[in-house]
Amino acid sequence: MKYRRFGRTELQIPVFSCGGMRYQYQWQDVPLSDIPEENQRNLEATIERAIALGINHIETARGYGTSEIQLGQILPKFDRDRLIVQTKVSPMEDSQDFRKTFEQSLKNLQLDYVDLLGLHGINTDELLDYSLKPGGCLDVAQQLQQQGKVGFIGFSTHAPTDIIIKAINSDRFDYVNLHWYYINQFNWPAIEAAIERDMGVFIISPSNKGGLLYEPSPKLVELCKPLSPMVFNDLFCLSHPQVHTLSIGASRPTDFDEHLKTLDLLDRTSEILPPIIERLENAAISVLGEDWFKTWHVGLPTPEETPGNISIHTILWLRNLAIAYDMIEYGKMRYNLLGNASHWFPGEKAENIDRLDFNPCLSRSPHREKIPQYLAEAHDLLVSSEVKRLSQQ
Fold first, then answer.
1. So which residues are the signal peptide here (predicted)?
2. Does residue 181 share a domain with residue 41?
C-alpha cells in the first residue's frame, strides 16, 4: 500500500480507503441479533482483508444503516493505533441532536474515539449554516474534539462547487470528502481551494458514481485499454498529488483486487495516461463535435434558475456520457435519481419541456438553441423507472 499526507491532520492515509456503505446488511437500523451471520462474516472478512493490505482507513456514517453496529463487532479486535476510523453525522438545526447522534455512532462502533468526524452532506446553504453558526454542529464537533472523542473534523458534500468552496473558505474544516474523477472534474476548483488551506482530500465513490466501473460499457473498456476503466480512473485521480485517498466501497473481500493493480503504475502516470485520455477525448469529439465537447457547460443555469427546476447541467452531462461512451446504464441510474434524491442530487428530469420557455435562463449559453432538443433527447434515452438513493431502498 502507498500512503499520502492527509493535509494538516498529518495522518498518513492509504491511497485507497475502505468505504462502509456497501457491505452492511441493511440501510435501516436493526438489532444486531437480526443481522444474518453470513452477512456479518462477509463484512468482517472484508475489513480483515483491507487491514492486511494496509488499507487501515475505515470510513462509514450514521446514515449507512447497520454499517456502524456491524463494524463495532470487528474494529475493537484490531490494534487501535493502527486504524484511522471515520464516521459521518449529518448537520442538524438543533446541534444537541447532532451530539446525540454522534454519541450513538460511537456506541455502535464500540470505540472511545474516531480519528475523523465528517459533517455529512453539507449540500445546501442551509446545511452549511447549521454547521457554521454559533452554537451549531461544528461547535459541538469541536467540543467533542476537546473531550478526546474526535481527532479531526471535516465534511462530506454533494453540493454545487460554489457551496463546497464556501465551506472550505470558512477554514474551519481539516478535510473534505467530495466527488471528482475522470468523467466528473467539475469540483477541481474546490480541490484547489482545499489544498490552499492544507486540507485532506478524500474522493467519494470513484468506481460507482465515477461510471459504474464494476460493470463498464464495452466501449469504455475498449477506450481505456490496456487498463481497465477502474484502474484508469484510479490512476487518473491519484496522478494528481492534491488527491489523497479514493474510497473503495467494497461489498466483499475481492473488491479490492482490481484497484490494487493501480499501485505499481503510479510512477508511470505521465507515460500511461496521456494516450488513453487522448483516445477518450477523440471518441467524444467524433460523436459530440469539438465545439460542443469543449463548451457545452458554458453559461448554464442552476436548477433554481430554470423553469421546472430542471437540472440542465446534469442532464446534458449524462447525455454526453451516454452518447460518447455508451454509458447508458450509468446515465439511467443517475438521471432517474432526479426528483427523488432531495439535496443529494438536486433538480428535476426534462419532462414536458415543450411547455417551458428556456430562453431567459439560457441567455448566456452559446448553445441556447440546441439545448431544449438535447434535453428532450436525453429524457427519451435515459428515462426509466424511478431510482432511489441507496439509503432509501
1. none
2. yes
Q: Residue 4 is placed in which grid cell?
A: 499520502
Q: Which three cell numbers stand for residue 90?
A: 449529518
Q: Which three cell numbers stand for residue 154?
A: 471535516
In a domain? residue 282: no
Residue 150, C-beta contacts closer than 8 angstroms, at least 6 positions apart:
113, 114, 116, 117, 141, 144
Percent of the chain with pLDDT over 70: 98
pLDDT at 390 over 80: no
Q: Which DSSP state fits 127?
A: H
Q: Does the residue 283 lie in any domain?
A: no
Of 199, 232, 267, the last residue of a domain is 267
Residue 350 has pLDDT above 60, yes or no: yes
Instruction: Give the Cα separation of 303 and 311 in Å (integer).
Output: 5
What gap in Å lies between CA 107 and CA 110, rounded to an integer? 5
Tens-place pLDDT, residues 155-203: 999 999 999 999 999 999 999 999 999 999 999 999 999 999 999 999 9
How much is the CA Rg of the chain, to the nearest whole Å? Answer: 21
The type of residue at 232 is F
What is the residue range of 142's domain? 3-267
Which region among 3-17, 22-36, 99-113 has the lowest average model confidence (pLDDT)? Answer: 22-36
Residue 132 CA to residue 380 CA, distance in Å, equals: 42
CA angle 35, 49, 40 (to 5 degrees): 5
Cβ pair 212, 329 in contact under 8 A: yes
Tens of pLDDT, residue by residue over 220-270, are 999 999 999 999 999 999 999 999 999 999 999 999 999 999 999 999 999
Residues 255 and 310 in one domain: no
Contacts of 209 (CB under 8 A, 6+ apart): 179, 181, 184
Q: How many domains does the structure of the chain reveal?
A: 2
Q: Give the number of other CB atoms < 10 A from CB of residue 293.
A: 16
Decide: helix, strand or coil at residue 241.
coil
User: What's the mean pLDDT when you consider all of the chain?
Assistant: 95
